[in-house]
Write a structure and sequence with these properties.
This protein has one domain. It contains 3 helices and no strands. Helix 1 crosses helix 2 and helix 2 packs across helix 3.
């Protein structure tokens, strides 16, 4: 993996984490925690959605969109585990 693509993935994950924290109010982990969840969500979205047949596309906006969905799903699942 090149440095530029790693940096782009971190940037997309940070934005997705911030957005997912806004969407899932009350289930977040603070700014830094949500950014980390966003980075993990971006990675999950990059592996799960193509396996399901969804194309991430080539633009930054579609990458942020799919990473945000992945981060929201991850926050939801973490919230379920924390309650149990």
């Amino acid at each position: 993996m090149e440095f530029g693509s790693l940096l782009a993935m971190l940037f997309v994950g940070a934005i997705a984490g911030w957005l997912s924290g806004r969407i899932m109010k009350g289930r977040g982990f603070g700014v830094i925690g949500n950014i980390i969840v966003g980075i993990v969500g971006a990675f999950l979205a990059g592996t799960i959605f193509p396996a399901l047949g969804f194309s991430v596309g080539g633009g930054i906006m579609s990458s942020i969109f799919f990473a945000t969905i992945g981060a929201v799903i991850l926050l939801f699942l973490i919230g379920l585990v924390k309650k149990a």
